[in-house]
Amino acid sequence: MFEQGDVVGQDDLREKWQIQLRKGTLDLVILAALQDRPVYGLALLRQLQRFPTTAISEGTLYPLLDRLKRDGLVSADWVQEGDSRPRKYYQLTADGRLKLAALAQAWRQSVADIDALLAATTGAAPARHRKPT
User: Does pTM surpass 0.85?
Assistant: First the structure.
């Protein structure tokens, strides 16, 4: 598809691939970010933006949080802290914790399967490979 020296083409391909990967993992990413404690929206956005593969915009985050809330996976509460404006804190529900566990297991299995395929292609030993449970 691209010439070997076509760095611009490779960068474009990599960016498109990363966008698709991000879209496919956003539920897992958000649920994982909320697993330890309630987090308000802007703090959650900043947490995700610390990592290149999970960096999203407000325009992506808030509709996603609304959908997760409608699906019963997260709850949201307004909290007033001192004299500052109230902040909306998001946290996992019991169903959200179950969904997180299922998505995390599927993610880990996918990574193990892909590692095994890559190792077979390159001749290297896979980092780890687990049988599906």
Answer: no
Q: Are 27 and 68 in contact (CB under 8 A)?
A: yes
> Under the phi-then-psi rule, with left for phi > 0, alpha for psi from -120 to 50, and beta for the rest, what region is 72?
left
Domain total in the chain: 1
Which CATH number do you get for residue 72? 1.10.10.10
The letter for the amino acid at 50 is: R
- Tell me the per-residue pLDDT of 27-36, one tens digit each, with 9 for 90 and over: 999 999 999 9
Helices (H), ranges, the chain? 7-33, 41-49, 58-70, 94-122
First to last CA, the chain: 38
Q: Which domain holds residue 15?
A: 7-92
Between 26 and 3, the more confident residue is: 26
